[in-house]
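Database export, one record per block. Field names are fixed; values are copied verbatim from the stored entry.
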Amino acid sequence: MENDITIIFVSFHSEDIIEKSIATINHDIPIIVIENSRNFSFKEKLEEKYSNIKVIIPEQNLGNGAGINYGIKNIKTKYAFYLDVDTELYPDTIINLLEAARKIKNFSILAPNINNFVYKKECYLESNKNEKYTLMRFVTGCALFFEKRLFNEIGYFDENIFLYFEENDFYERCLKKKKPIYLIENSKINHKGNSSVKNIFKEEVEINRNWHLMWSTFYFYNKHFGKITAYKKVLPKFFSAFFNILFFTIINNKKKRKIYSARFSGILNSIIGKKSWFRPNTTKQ
C-alpha cells in the first residue's frame, strides 16, 4: 500500500530540521522537496544521501500553497501526503491513513492527529470519539493527505495566497463540493511548530509572517464571505497596527515597529487589491 503514496515537503531555509522528519519516513516511499530558498547545495546533499528524495528548485520562492501545487503536479502516485518540515511520523502513521482512504473512499483530506494539540469545538462537524474517523470543518495544515485526482475537481491551492489561509480557502472549496474532511484518530504525528526556518532569519520571517497573515485574512474573508465580513475581521487589527507603529516609534523600539508596520501594510495592500508581493529578506548568511 505504501507504494501508492508520495510525501511532499515545502522547504525554506529548512536544512537544519528537515532530516529529522525524513528519518521517520520509510525510505521506500518517494519524497519530493520543493526548495523555495533555492539552495542548490542542499538539493545535492539530500539527493546524494537519500535515493528516494527528489528536490525541485522553482525559479522563485513560491510560498506554501503554490509549493504544494508544484509538488502535486510532479507526483506519480495515487496519493500525496503534504508535511511541514518540522513534523515527525510514527511507524503506523501512513499505514493508518492509507487504510482510512481505502475504507472512506469519498474524502477531500485526511489529517492525522497531532500529539498535544486540542481542536476547538468549532473545528468539528461531528464529534464522536468512539469512531476512528471524525468529520471536520478545519484541520491544521501541517499534515494533509490527498488523493491526486481531487485537484482535478476542486482545483489547486489558490496561488494568490503566498502564506496563511491557503488551507482554509481549500477547505471551503472542498466542503462546498461535498468532499468531506476527516481527522483520522488512530494516525498520529508530532509537530514542533514555528521551527522550520534557520534561527538567523527569525526576525525577517516574523515580519514576513505578520505581513502575510494580515494580507491573507482580508483576502480569504472577502473571497468567501464578502467585503463586510472581511472589513470586520481586519479593521480592528488595522487601527491597532497604526497606533502601535506610533507608540513603538516614540519609545524607539525598532523591532516592534517593523512588525506592526508589516501588519498595517499587509492589511492596506489587501484592501486596495494589491497582490501578495511581500517577501522575506534572507540574503544574509
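Remark 1: Residues 202-225 form the longest helix (24 residues).
Remark 2: The longest strand covers residues 181-191.
End of record.
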